[in-house]
Sequence to fold (549 residues):
Amino acid sequence: MATAIDKQKHDIDMQRTTIRRHGLATRITHWIWAVALFFLLLSGLQIFNAHPSLYIGEQSGFAFDNSVLSIRAVRGADGNAEGLTTLFGRPIDTTGLLGVSGPEDSRAYQAFPAWLTVPSYHDLATGRVVHFFFAWLFAATFASWFAASLITGHLRRDILPTLSDIRGLPGSVVEHLRFRFHHGRSYNGLQKISYAVVLLGLFPLMFLTGLTMSPAMNAAVPWLTEIFGGRQTARTIHFVVMMLLVGFFAIHIFMVFAAGPINEMRSMVTGRYRIDGEATEGEPER
Amino acid sequence: MSRIIINRRRFLTAAGVAVSTMPLVECDALDGMLSSDATVRNAMARANGLTYRVQRFLVGADSLAKEFSESEIRQGQKPNGSTDPTDSIYAALRDASFAGYRLEVGGLVDRPLSLSLDELRNMPSRTQITRHDCVEGWSCIAKWTGVPLAAVLDEAGAKSDARYVVFRCFDTMNLGLSGEVAYYESIDMLDARHPQTILAYGLNGAPLPVANGAPLRVRVERQLGYKMAKYVRSIELASDLAPYGQGNGGFWEDLGYDWYAGI
Fold:
């Protein structure tokens, strides 16, 4: 009974209005990216497993040390294999997850565990097939999104943060930390900035560092390795951007659930989004 | 203005649902689709053909791979793949310091050749300090000296229907059940005639060591390491790759790697 009263109160409190929030292009590209990034990540980890070390500079140091991360299996003091991750020279025991993983009776001695790679068994060739297929899909989707967003004004209107978005950022952060979400017509400042960073920063950075690892592209566009400080640095940046995107994904999913998964999911599928307060007649979608 | 209040229970429920999606990352189910002759894998591999065509369009025929300075040579060239061939013909040549070595050049040529190491060394030479990029992900900078492949092709007189240069090698790779398989590789005429494509007999100012492919190996600087066959025994010009190995153009290609290794 109490819940029924609560609901009634809630309905009175809140004038619910449904608007069309996400355009078709936004929705289609969103879901293609979701699928492509999923496979790019898991096939990328397969590729990384072939040489699970990251370096700074043009080359990998075998006779000198320029590595920033390495993940490997080593023989421990008791004779058992241990997973050893070395980050900036600091050793970390990661047995069970990185370096050595899998059930006790069938240990796998690889950097990332089998359940995180596509395919699950060691197969660099197939990892590359999957990675480059989805890389093309990802790039084509990005190009389409960028062109469409320029034409429709989505980029300027919804993604690029305004001065007031930036000024309102501290307040926006505090609101989010207190789990107070305002469901408005447009993205709030924090949303705009994070989407701008991902779409206009991390995505292009991923393409460019990926291309920098291509020896043919190095011949065509020699300045690419220069701006990233060498092929191995580009590979390291590619990996770091991957981790930032994984971090973004975790927060993104969390926010969807925290802000109302049904409303958020519906808006990303059908475009329809319930906002707080009454829609003003004729107000442009901003 | 109203707001959605998240109490602890809603927060935990949301977090729980979010975390529960993680096991979806279990991908063994995809393995079958991706096995070497599966339709899905073949369809995806078509993207490699797109990469080849786009890169051939973007990368000028003669644009050079980056060359480095002497100071960038900070270590020996890391050997990879087979590093000490045990095959009897090769072992006999190695024991005689490759005195009896001859490079056979045949196939679609006007004048088949049989060149000794001295004859190769007396041909035009080129020295380049380049970065070797392994398909595994590592890179190593070294100085390579050798005869431009184009010079050898000109001497042999490539026929107009020659589309590929196939390298046959002394080393064999153990593939377990299927036994020993001879290493081979192939490149197209555009890469074969590239100024930096050389048959290298020198590494870092010394004769090419056995671990790095003595007495002669290929350098194709705008592609990945597996294209650069070591222990080269003969060169054949061909119009079709089907007769070689399993027909995919190389040892690693027969195991599922892409023939064009520009990325």
Chain B touches chain A through 62 residues (CB under 8 Å). Residues 19-26 of chain B have pLDDT under 50 and may be disordered.
